[in-house]
Design goal:
Layout (H helix, E strand, L loop, with lengths): L1 E3 L4 E4 L10 E6 L10 E16 L7 H13 L1 E11 L5 H19 L6 E8 L6 H8 L8 H10 L8 E9 L2 E10 L12 E6 L5 H14 L4 E2 L9 E6 L15 H21 L7 E9 L2 H13 L1 H8 L5 H9 L11 E4 L2 E5 L2 E2 L4 H7 L4 E7 L5 E8 L3 H8 L4
Helix pairs in contact: 1-2, 2-3, 5-6, 7-9
Length: 409
Amino acid sequence: MMHGMSEHIIKVDEGTITTPAGFSVAGLHSGVKRKRNDLGIIYCETLADVAAVFTTNVIQAAPLKVTKEGLAKEGKLRALIVNSGNANACTGEQGEQDARTMRDETAKQFNLLPEHVAVSSTGIIGLAMPMDKIIPHIKQLKPEATTASAAAFNESMLTTDTVKKSTCYEAMIANKKVTMAGAAKGSGMIEPNMATMLSFITTDINIESTVLQKALQEITKQTFNCITVDGDTSTNDTALIMASGLANNDSLTPAHEDWPIFISLLRHTCEDLAKLIAQDGEGATKLIEVKVNGAQDDEEAIKVAKSVVGSSLVKTAVYGTDANWGRMIAAVGYSGAHIHPETIDLSIGPIPLLKDSQPLEFSEKEATAYLENEEIIITIQLHVGEGNGKAWGCDLTYDYVQINASYRS
């Protein structure tokens, strides 16, 4: 089943990370985690052009270092090996050696050059990698382009996530059908510049890595960097896109007339994955979207939106179905953005609460009923300029504390 998004882009409901031509995946249980799949691979039959963005945390996990080194050579990959249950972060020399061993073993198994293999890890920080479990299981990974293998792969990257996260779109570019799909994980320790967040995107578009890199960096600012669960920035975050080129379109550049379609495709894919991560925040029951209009510029709008959606007091108010606009306006005020304190309009869902910073009469009952929805939209108009932006987060619940108080035990 498919349904249209904009006139050019179609969402493919049954699509998976293997829908774009050239990709196959696998996922299995190696024993790093107690039960669920914890080792996965994305394999591309061509030498894919690649773009990637990584965490802004100064402490970066070993796999990021190894992946960055490989990508620095030519910006291309054939495979990506990922494990969950252990982040291989703050693990010193040994950790780096282990990440290289994972890369080299995967290269050997699939007959690839080591620099054409990326490594990604997520899980507990500061524990040595159980290589005795991982190495023998790399040999058992058999990538396939099936729905079942996509589900197995998606599970292999989860930690405290409660659901697998994926999306898929198709479009026509230069008269060729192109497909883009993604799979992600992330549930806590999420304040991206990015989050404990892994997002892997596949596409069959023909595009060079340098061009792809610029586009991904731009879109990341509007999507992955606009979600927050708890304000913590992880050591392992990665968003990475592989382009197989098998759609055989002329190589895409910003000068191409269909460039806007490509950007829209990438934005839809990244925004879907970002929202799925925010919605699955640890213990979360609601997705909160904050839309800010009329800011000085788009960057300022995003700053305000993130300030509001990241406020623990706003998050607990939404959890408690309390239309406490005072908390929201306070978060606008301390966001650091340029505002006019007397010109702010604010509404939750269809209910206006403030006009020109003055409270409006509203039905508490109606507001409480709206806040019981699973998706809450808070709209703020600043009347300062033309900037617009959005950010996503979730409510803060008793369960969040419970999950994180007992994460290692």
